[in-house]
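Instructor's aside before we start: the two examples that follow are unrelated to each other. I chose them only because their records fit on one page, so don't look for a connection. First example below.
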Amino acid sequence: AAVEAAIGGVPAIAFSLALPRDAYGLAGPQRVQALGDRPHRAAEVAAEITETFLRHGMPAEVDCVSVNFPEDVAIDSRRHIAAVTRTTYD
């Protein structure tokens, strides 16, 4: 969805969260239980990152950002910025 937004000229951020092994193959209440508070912690960090981009804007020449969270993400987790690659789709 973030790439589609960027193609359409709308800057976007994509967030993803690594799942613990015991959550794979589960659905419904069992998956919710296996995930525990991970989605809430990831949402807290995603909100902070989004607020930063809204306040300061996207970096120059960047229209799509991908943020990948480890399964143990927390508000005080270290942040790593990886190199950006400009790609076009025909």
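Example two begins here.
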Amino acid sequence: MMWICYIIMIVVPYLLGGINTSIIATRVRSGKDIRDMGSGNAGLTNTLRTQGKAVAGVVLLGDVAKAVLSIWAVRLAFLFIGGVDTTVLSNEMNWVGYMAGLMVVVGHVLPVYSGFRGGKGVLAAISAIFTLDWRTGCLLLGVFIVLVAITRYVSLGSVAASSLYFVGTLVFVYFIDKDPSGIVCTFIALFTEAIVIFKHHGNIRRLLTHTEKKLGEKSK
């Protein structure tokens, strides 16, 4: 029955991740496509700039919920269908949660429901990271908050924080927890952060040319 669990691990987080609350909420509020507005990104920051705080709040809750639900749905599938508790490190299956987190991000970035045009995966990723390991989550969130507070560039904070996912997982999960599957978790974290950083290539270019919008600046 384990093969069913592995299918669930890939398919369920991807499909849940593809439910883009930014696209849905903007469509409901204004009848427009968020991807044709502002920066063109179907994510929290662009929603805040173009739709306001109330709609952005819906997006925040939606992205957090789909990441948390995806990981726990997969963990419960392995527990009740496969008979394996993936949260017990000695079972050497902790990587399953990390793979579910990766697939949530893939679904958010490349949603099958929206022509494979999604967001950049930051909020989905950090929500998954907190679900998997609160210490790494706190590290990344702390870096994000400090950089955004100093520079007012959300993209800079996002890229810098994302680049530490690999490091945080390596330190906390592999070295401190001595998780037998820690090295696998670390490489999954590396791949996840690579996706998020790649999706910010436009922001990185604008940061280098000093044309990136700061937090609080409105988009049409």
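The CA atoms of residues 174 and 182 lie 4 Å apart.
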